Every structure is written in structure tokens, then in C-alpha cells.
Amino acid sequence: MTWSPILLDVIRAVLIFAAVMTLVPFLVLAERRISAWIQNRVGPNRVGPMGTLQPLADVIKLVFKEEIVPARADRVLYSLGPLLSFAPAAIAFAAIPVGRGLQVVDMSVGVLFVITATSLAVYGISFGGWASNNKFSLLGGLRSSAQIISYEIAMGLALISVIMTTGSVSLSQISEGQTSFLCWNIFRQPIAFVIFFTAAFAENNRLPFDLPECESELVGGYHTEYSGMKFGMYFLAEYVAMIVMSAMVVTLFLGAWSPGFALPEGLLGTVISVGVFSFKLFAVLFFYIWVRWTLPRFRYDQLMHLGWKSLVPLAMANIVVTGIVVTIWDAVQ
Amino acid sequence: MECTLRPYLPIAVYGALVLGTGFSLTLASSIFGPRVRRLEKESTYECGSLPLGSSRERFSVKFYLVAILFVLFDIETVFLVPWAVVYRSMGLFGLLEMLAFMGILLLGFVYAWKRGGFDWE
What we know:
The structure holds two protein chains of two kinds. Chain A is an all-alpha fold. Chain A has one domain (60-332). Chain A contains 13 helices and no strands. The radius of gyration of chain A is 21 Å and the shape is globular. The relative contact order of chain A is 0.14. Chain B is mainly α. Helix content of chain B is 66%, strand content 0%. Chain B contains four helices and no strands. Chain B has helices at residues 9-32, 39-42, 62-85, 87-114. In chain B, helix 3 (62-85) packs antiparallel against helix 4. The relative contact order of chain B is 0.05. Chains A and B meet through helix 1, helix 3, helix 6, helix 11 and helix 13 of A and helix 1, helix 2, helix 3 and helix 4 of B.
């Protein structure tokens, strides 16, 4: 009998991983279709009904492509780059509750785990940029490292004020604390929400902060020299990281799996909670794509100034204000 | 078998899945793809022209500065976490301690700002 909970754990881990990996191709397709819709063109619609098999066709094509390794590249780091970019982003998802009581591991330090894992992705990008032995790649990798670590400060400080209000770093407890609509952290910590979301865009190298790639300046940035499935892995990593960050935004600020009122007990409630979480996740991902075609790219100095001179002081002020308000609130209660 | 690592079994499974997928994808193209070596193909990409000089060039010292500032402020953030968790149970004492800590942090931040640490021309 001791085996059955272990089996259940394994099945849950496999299912959640499979769900994330299945979501990626559909997200890529959704991004291409929505981009086309925003730009008033058709987008991929030939492979399969409404283009639904397009991502599959792309993957098959990438796998059967020749892999060109530049002659003077550092081969070990060159191969490690995509892996180090993909693995941390994917592992980070293990701590996120995708439904009521449904996550790979209920970690007591979930927030820290996710932040740690996602920040490891900077190695993948800087290794790839350096190992390719190309000036564009090197510059792309450097820019990206500097950008990611700069915005991590703002992100970390924004999280502190959330942790102060919730009093927990466990993602499941933070979710439980937001069951009623008005308790959603977006209402209790609106400034932290804005800072976190902005930093999330920068961490994922998404427009308006996609300077590491920056086609018009750096060819393709850190992945200029990558081809075949290794390029595909950087692509995959970017989308997995995007899903993880959106899931964090939903869990920390938008009420996690809660629809805003109490869910029924038992299996029905769990199923509804997964549905609600997925809906919110898709809404945030849609916002990501929408922003991509709405805002132009920042210049590098503007990017650094926004991070260090605006977001960091704002986050610090937010911590102080949160501290004062929380103390007064608790004294009055 | 009773041990404290039991709750972390799923993440071992999950991690193995992630690494397995990662390694197989890394190898995928070199197994399935063709391999025709040419000198031009394997040279550094520079929009068609031959690359000038080495790619291991010196780069702006600014990047080092950002890295150092990151280490400083990230450590401060890590110090803040345990304290933020228990903040509400500390009451007024917590508030005063927080103000003192944030004051010192702000001092360092203003110093770095005034010395031009965040300027990027």
C-alpha cells in the first residue's frame, strides 16, 4: 500500500510536465496567429485545420536540419547553452500550484525556488553567446545577462512587499490566501504587481525588452550561430520561461486558481480550479503577445535606467509603505 | 522507508524528465540531421564577409559594474526575505527595524547613483 501515493506523485509530475510541454507548441501557434491578427494578415493556416499542426511541422523540420557548429566555437559550452537555458525554466514550474492542492511539490520556499531556477537561465544565454565565437552573439549574451540581473533586483524587491502582506513564501499558502476576490494581491499590492510584471517581461527577453536578440542590431543576438534543434531549444526555453512567469503572475497577484469565491469541496472543485488557473494563465499570455505588437523596443540605456533608476527605488518605497500600512492595519484590527 | 526527503521525490522525477528531454533535444539534430562540412559554412557568421580579428574582444567595463551592483543588491534582497515572512508578527519593533534596514540600503543606493553607477551612456 505504501506504493500507491508514490505512484500518484509520479503520475502527477509526469502529467504536469506533459501539460507544459504540450502548451508550448500551442503558445507558439497562438503567438503567430494573434500577431497576424493584430497586423491584419492571415498567419499560418495551411498545415492541419486552422494551422494547428504548424508547430509540429516546425519541430520536425528543425530536428532534421543540419546542425552547423562554427569551427572555432567552444564545443562543450556551445552544447550546454541551450540545455542550461531550457532546464531551469522547465524545472521552475514544479513549484507552481496549477490547481487546488495540485502541484509537483508543495515547497515551503516555493517563491524562492522559482526565482532561483528562472535566474539560472542567464547562464544558458551567456554561455551560448560566448561559446559561439561571434561578436554579435557575445554582445547579445552580455546585454542579456546585464538586463536579466538588473531586473531581478526590482523583481526580488517587489516580491518582498508581497511576502510581507501574505506572510509566507509558500506558493500554495499564497494561493489559499487569495480565495475571496478582494484578497487578490493585485488589490493589496498594485505597485508590486506593476513592477513584477514589467520585470517579468525583461527577464523573458520579450518586447519591449528584447534587446538580447534585437534583430536590427545584432542579427539574432546570442543564438546567431545556433541551428537545428539547438536553436529550437532556445526558442522552447523562451516560451517555457514565459509560461512560468505568467503562472507566477497569476499565482502571486491574480488570485491563483481561485475564481473569486469559494469552490465546492472534492474533485469537482479541483477540476474547476485547474480550469480557472488555465484561463487566467492564457489571459496573461495573451497580454504578453498583445504588448509585443503595441510597444516599440527600448534603447539599451533607457532599459538600464528604467530598471535601476525607476523600478528599484519604486520597489524600495513600496516596501516601506507596505511596512507602515501593515503595522497600522494590524494595530487597528 | 521513512525519510525526510520523501516529499521531494516528485521533483526528482520531474527533474529527470526535464533533463532527459533536454539531452535528447540537444542530440536530436546531430543524430537525424545531415552533416556536410564546408569551410564557408563553419566560419563565423558575419553577414557574408570574412570576420575581422578575434571575437574574444574586450567589452565595456559597465557590464562588470552592473554585475557587482547586482551581487550587492541581490544579497540585500535575500536578507529581506526571512524577515518579510515574520514581519506581521513583530509589530512596532518590526517596523522600526525595517525602517533602519531600508535606510541603510537607501544610503548605499543613493551613493551608487551619485557615483554614476547606474548611468549608461
